[in-house]
Amino acid sequence: MHRGVSTAAGLLIGFAIDRAAGDPRRGHPVAGFGMLAASLESVTYADHRRAGVVHELVLVGSVIGLGAVLRRGGAIPVAAATWTVLGGRSLARTGRMMADRLEAGDLTAARELLPSLCGRDPEALDTDGLARAALESIAENTSDAAVAPLLWGAVAGVPGLLGYRAVNTLDAMIGYRNQRYRHFGWAAARVDDMANLLPARMTGLLTALVAPLVGGRPGTVLRTWRRDAHRHPSPNAGVVEAAAAGALGVRLGGRTEYRHGVEQRPELGRGPAPAVGDLRRAVRLSELVQYAAVISAAVLAPLSAVLWDRMRGRSARG
């Protein structure tokens, strides 16, 4: 089987397994990587950027090297890696659970659930605040947990799948601007920004494509993206959150309370603030984008393989 075709097949199979089974409840490889990274940090940590660069290179480089070994097995390792790195079904399930708890008026249970979606202070949020926090997290994580790994898998196979998840996990662990990680986590944050530049914009385009299925308009998505995304402090989260706001006809951003303090985020979109019903629509939008992403990745994988083969051929002739 041609390498591009086997990659496409592996991506489709791995996506199907994720949709059917979700993340394993115990022994998740990503959790194991996180434990390894935390242990290594006790050795590599120093309050300067060079130490963070070494930390990033060792961990991400090791994972990409492992992926390069595993890629020789055809579709099976691609499927296994895809299932390992995807988090789309778990994201949608958590979003629905949040909507259920908010509709039932159980704010205590909703607040307990919020940390599994984002790092905001749940005790400071009411029903609408919890709905907005969950919706924004679902929009951003649709790209991080589904579109980005699928795109990197299509372009680079198993090394792309595993390498992207390593980059994204390290950013979630140390890519902060607090006192401990301002310098050490700089490389993790910058590499994650670069790794998500194209996936975030692909997510925005796919959001525009499927917007009519959640009551939105593609033109509104693109206008909101163009008008508002650049105002967000993140070059990537701004794109996907603005696109989601345009598709759902809601206004995101505003006062955002974290445990470390309060941030005033720019407003994205021109509709009303999101309510619980909008959160359910956001979950549906996320799932539609995920399906569109895996189809796009399956089409892109053979084309990418042909391009890599041509580049290698030119290099050999040179």
TrEMBL record:
The chain crosses the membrane at residues 288-308. GO terms for cellular component: plasma membrane. Keywords: Cell membrane, Cobalamin biosynthesis, Membrane, Transmembrane, Transmembrane helix. One of its GO terms (biological process) is cobalamin biosynthetic process. It comes from the Bacteria. Pathway: Cofactor biosynthesis; adenosylcobalamin biosynthesis. It is a multi-pass membrane protein. Pfam families: CobD_Cbib (PF03186). Its main location: membrane. It is found in: Cell membrane. GO terms for molecular function: ABC-type vitamin B12 transporter activity; threonine-phosphate decarboxylase activity. This is Cobalamin biosynthesis protein CobD. It comes from Nocardia jinanensis.
